[in-house]
Specification:
The protein is built from eleven helices and twelve strands. By secondary structure, the chain is α/β, with parallel strands linked by helices.
């Protein structure tokens, strides 16, 4: 399989999520290049100042790291699942996004959420506010991004942000950047998805409500996060399932997809029938190169054949 093989199966795409804690730069870049070589569609980092739920450890800053990833790849789309809106003023975020989009040749997907890890915001001194206030701030950020990406001067008067004679130059390569909004809240998140998003990223813990929440997404396409355990054979399934559950617990990640490659093909096909177009995968073994290559040949290829049949 050559590096330019695409596994974009009609309306079916696969991305790899690599939360960059306890990892050095070299390891992340090496994984990203294998992801691209194997024909996946996208590569995703997390946007935190620490690893929630883990003891203190090395945690690389996401935007700086994603810029380095852009420099060593040429095809895959790049993004965060999802960016933490309270970390950055929307004008700065727009400038960062447009710059990274320029560096990557128009390959950025902008993932955003309103900031649900309250302990992180408090620990690092960001204003907490209520959940509704953080959701409102994300809505204003999305409006400001749209205005910044036009390149034209504008004024903005919101409850959270005020800008006067602002403008955003350079513009993104294609004029705008696809917006992914992550979450599963029907009151504070889904209205933002319906109004602003190109993609609704359904977090793993909300996948059991996917059909119900889909009624609220408007025209946004559906991406979803999955913990994946790929077993060597039937005798390995139980071990891999236990390891996957320990590393990616059900409350946060939802039910994992675990099995042999043939079983995974069936599981992904069922999820695709539920309306998921972009699968963002976190592998049980931290996306080892051999796992990525085997998944590409034994899962992506058969799925492509099924969808194109």
């Amino acid at each position: 399989m050559t590096a330019d093989v695409r596994h974009r199966m009609g309306d079916l795409q696969f991305g790899v999520y690599v939360p960059q804690f306890k990892m050095d730069v070299t390891s992340v870049l090496a994984t990203a290049t294998v992801v691209e070589e194997c024909g996946f569609d996208s590569f995703w980092l997390m946007d935190h100042l620490y690893a929630p739920g883990a003891p203190p450890c090395d945690m690389l800053e996401s935007w700086t790291l994603l810029t380095a990833v852009a420099a060593v790849t040429s095809r895959i789309r790049l993004g965060h699942l999802v960016g933490c809106n309270p970390f950055r003023h929307p004008a700065l975020l727009a400038k960062m996004a447009a710059t990274l989009d320029q560096i990557s040749g128009g390959r950025l997907d902008l993932g955003l959420g309103w900031g649900s890890v309250e302990a992180e915001l408090t620990a690092f001194g960001f204003p907490l506010g209520s959940k509704r206030e953080r959701s409102e701030a994300l809505g204003e950020t999305l409006e400001i991004l749209e205005l910044m990406f036009t390149g034209e001067p504008f004024d903005y008067e919101g409850r959270q942000f005020q800008l006067h004679s602002a403008f955003g130059l350079p513009r993104p390569v294609h004029g705008r950047i696809p917006i992914h909004i992550g979450g599963g809240g029907p009151t504070l998140t889904m209205p933002l998805v319906a109004r602003y998003a190109d993609w609704w990223n359904c977090v793993g813990g909300a996948r059991n409500r996917l059909e119900e929440l889909s009624e609220l997404k408007g025209r946004a396409r559906i991406s979803a996060q999955y913990a994946v355990g790929m077993a060597a054979d039937e005798s390995d399934v139980e071990h891999v399932a236990a390891l996957t559950a320990r590393r990616m617990p059900v409350p946060a990640w939802g039910a994992a997809l675990v099995g042999t490659t043939a079983q995974l093909v069936e599981q992904f096909q069922r999820e695709h029938e539920r309306g998921v177009e972009l699968f963002v995968l976190r592998f049980h073994d931290f996306a080892a190169a051999d796992t990525l290559r085997r998944f590409a040949v034994e899962v992506l290829e058969p799925l492509k054949a099924l969808v194109e049949a």
